[in-house]
Structures are given as C-alpha cells and as structure tokens.
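Bug: token stream looks shifted between consecutive jobs. Job 1:
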Amino acid sequence: MEWLLGVVGGALGGWGAGAGVKQNKLGGIINAVLGAVGGAGGSALVQNFMAGGAGLDFGAIAGNLVGGGVAGAILSTIVGLIVGALKKKK
C-alpha cells in the first residue's frame, strides 16, 4: 500500500514539475510516468531509511506522498532537461 502512495505522489510531482519548468517539454503524460517511477523509489527510501515510513498512520501516508512527490519531480525534471539539451545539439 505504501508504494502505491509513492507512485501517486510521484506522478503528481512529475506532472507539476513538468508544468513548472519551461525547458521540460516532454508532455504531461510522460512527466507523470517518470514521476511515478521516481515516486516508487522515493517511497522505498522513505520506508527504509526514515523512522515511521511504513504503516497507515497519517505521518506515514504523508511521508510516502511527499517523498514520492519530491522524487518524482526531481526525476522528471532531470530527464526533461537532459532531453531538452540533447534536442538543442541537433
């Protein structure tokens, strides 16, 4: 259940980051998918390395959503900037 929260948070974070960074022109769906992948990893980090990262209490839910959202935003932004830089070189 916790990983699903991270995936949802990551998808939202990736979509939001893609909309906020003008150099990221991958599109909303791709940003959301990249964010979901990053969110799954971010949620796993929250569960493994931070106290109280697992379970269904409010703190764990918030931690997984925020951790997934931040990781998703970071991943989609990095990939978007790399793709944008590669397109400029052509």
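Job 2, same session, no restart:
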Amino acid sequence: MIRVTTLLIRQSTTVLAWALLALATMTTSCNSAEPPAATPQARQTPATGARVTGPRAYVTNEVSGDLTVIDLVSQSVVATIPLGKRPRGIQLSPDRTKLYVALSGSPIAGPGVDESKLPPADKGADGIGVFDLKQGKLLTVLHSGSDPETVAVSHDGRQLFIANEDTAQLTVIDPADGRVLETVKVGGEPEGTGITPDGKRVYVTSEDDGAVFVVDVDTHKVVGSVEVGPRPRSVVFLPNGSRAYVPSENGATVSVIDTAALKVVETIHLGEGMRPMGGVVSPDGAFVYFSTGRSKMVVIVDTATNKVVGSIEAGIRPWGIAISADGKTLYTANGRSNDVSIIDIATRQVTKRIGTGTGPWGIALVSE
C-alpha cells in the first residue's frame, strides 16, 4: 500500500524526525490490514501531492481506510490519502469540485458471519466524508446515520441519499450544513443507490428483501418497490431513463426494470457461477458492463437485445467499476488483488494493473 504523509522536516533534523520519516517510507512497501484511526484529525490530514490536474481516478480502499489517486495519463499512483474506517461508496458532486465517500465503523463481515462474534461497531466513525478535489484533502465528515455503504447525489447537489446498511433506511442530508432532512424506511440491508437521469427518483436496492425501493427525490416518500433477484447489489440506468439494470449477486442475473411502469420486463441470465456486483452504462447507452466479484469477470450486456455479448477477466474480485467519458476504457477496483485494472473495450483486454491500498471498493473518475 502506498501511503502519502505530510512531514515537515526542519533544517535541524532530530533523531525523532528521522525515525518518523523511516516509518513513513517503510509503510509504502507494506500492506496494512488495519484502517487508520477514525478520528477527525486523522481523517482530515492533507497529503503531499494530492492536488492533481488532468484525468484521474479516485479509489476507496475499504480495509486500509484511504483513498488512492491515480493519474490516468501516466497511469500511476500520485497520492494515497487517509479517510477513515471502511470507505466504500464514492460519488462526484454535480459541480465536480468534491467527492462524497461513505465511511463506516461497523466491522467487516461477509455473508453468513456470526455477528455476535464480531468486535463492536465504532459508530463515531460512521459518516459521509467530503473530499475537496482542488485542495486534495478531506474537509469534513457529515453525520449520515448508521453504517453508510453507498451515497447518491441529487442533480442540483443539494441532497445526499445514503443507504444505511444495518438500519434498513435511507438517510437524506443537506451537504451544505450537514442537516438530516429525512430518514426513509426501506428494505433490509440497503446497498446500491442511484438517481434516475431525470433527477426525480432515487432507487435503493435491498439485499434482504430482494427488491428495489423507489423514493421521490422531492417528497422523500417511497413511491413503489420492485421485486428483483436475490441479493441485489447496485442499480444503473440507460441515459434516457427508460430502463434500470439491477444485478443480483446470488441469482447470477440482472433484472431489467421499466422505470415508467415500475416492473421487471426482462431477466438476463449471466451464466452459472457469475456473481454480478457493480454496473456501469456506456455513454451511448448501447452496453452495460457488470463486475462480478469472486467470478473475476466483467460481463458485457447489449441493451438492444438484453443479451450477454462477451466477458473480460478483470482481476481478483472486481467490485467498483467505471467507464471513461469516450466509452473506450473500463476501470475496475479489484478487492482481493489490491489493484485497479485498466481495460481496453475494443480489444477486451486488460492493458495495465495499478496497485492501490488494501481492499479497493469504489472508483470515481474525474476529468478536467
């Protein structure tokens, strides 16, 4: 794990300063299984070299508790910035000046784990980190309800919608002052969140209920729910907003929802053993790409036919997935190999892997 720290070394260097410098250097070559302390001071420490211009990727690392910044021109890591405990979902603000990152003090636990044997949750670490892109640092952490996993941003930037995994609710907050505007009851273990292209509704996937809950952005009322496959993980939309695609990890399927009728109109079978997780739509809406976690693949679906038309081996446990603005390149955050894969869509080949922190989870692209 590459960790960038800011050390002010005076001309009259002391033994203690040299010891700290040696420790910082040693951490750049060692992966840590422990995230940094979730104190506001630790989470707001700026990092040298964090200000980057040009196209870049920001990757949340769930285990090491930091943010990897990748220069997409040189295809190299330019900064690693401490955030807090379990950074996962990440979203760019509409004005492209900030990133919002879901932070959680709940212990990491996979499906079927006996939660009574886990360490207690650190609720003081829960929140939405606000990361300033120009300054290259974490500005503050907003209270967001318990165990936030993902966050969606309204089109006007005035509301954040947060999936609270362990309380079966959606929390709505005002990012300007951190006020909680509403808490909305949804299905158990809400995870994926997404705003429709017209900005009027937010979709929330419920792993326990095997359903998607649809909430009005203005009234904060649930306007409907749609039953989908088991353990839905995320939701993405065609650019025209007519269809939503919801991958079901435990069903190896993708449910295609008619967003006007709020019903599933087609179920796409990805193949035996596939465990679809994240999704991203091509800019022209012609294809949807799904990461498949433990299945290692990115699966390609043609939206004209809703058929699988190809797959690419991306890495070990690809979860977060993003696509370049020109639709030519995919990026996957590979949680078990601690790297990001750069994939050329035309050749369907991984062209490079770039090391990250430990447990990369989400990825956001920023271009200037």
